[in-house]
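Usage

Read records sequentially. Each one opens with the input sequence:
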Amino acid sequence: MRRVAASPSVAIAAAALLGGCGARSNPYEATIEGVLLADADQVIPAPAAASAPLVKVTVAAPDPTPAAGPVRLAIERKVPWGRVHALLGRYAAAGGEPALLVGKRDVVHAWVLSDEITGPAIQVTSTPDGKFCVGPPTVELAKCVQSSDKLHINRAFVREILRDAVKEYELTEVEVHAVSGLEWADVVRTVDGVRTCCGKTVIKARLAAPDEPVKVPEAPEDEAAAPDDATGDDAGAGDGAGAGDDAE
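and closes with the structure output:
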């Protein structure tokens, strides 16, 4: 068999192609100075680097010392929500103006933590076992869904269940409760899933403080009470679907 030697130009082109593939970034992940950011679909423009210095918040490093003025907070995905909430409180006390950085695909944006709500709100809770529960504002009965990996909140599930709740309860305001140990990325997935559940219908989501109890208002006297043995726990409804998030 005759051997045909590759020309230098072909060899160089092949090496460049292989090198380019190896260096290509994940199109579904955004990083900034080594920090892997939580991802969201409903985002706002991030402040310019010149006007807001970057401050990194990671699991391994001590929390930064808050100061007055604008900053860009790059929060690592696995940082617990309780730690993030406490840090934001210290920034508020110091006169800081933190912009929370997230990724939409592989592009860095900023994200709104919480919306103002005024009326009755659908209740949503999220826990570190990949489980979230959705219920009406007047009773403690809720429908719960758990991701198959039992590790992370699945944003697609949140959208699906919220869409049904918005239609059933005819409400467009939501109160989200996340326990202090929930990872930052799962907090963002929950709130972003709520806000993006319903197409052109604008959904407002208030994010409660960590472990803040769900406030259940008194139901009208003519409203039937939930049965004593009702749990509202459909935690297995989501089993078998993709783990974590819809794009991860």
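Summary fields computed downstream for this record:
- The longest strand covers residues 96-104.
- The first helix runs from residue 8 to 23.
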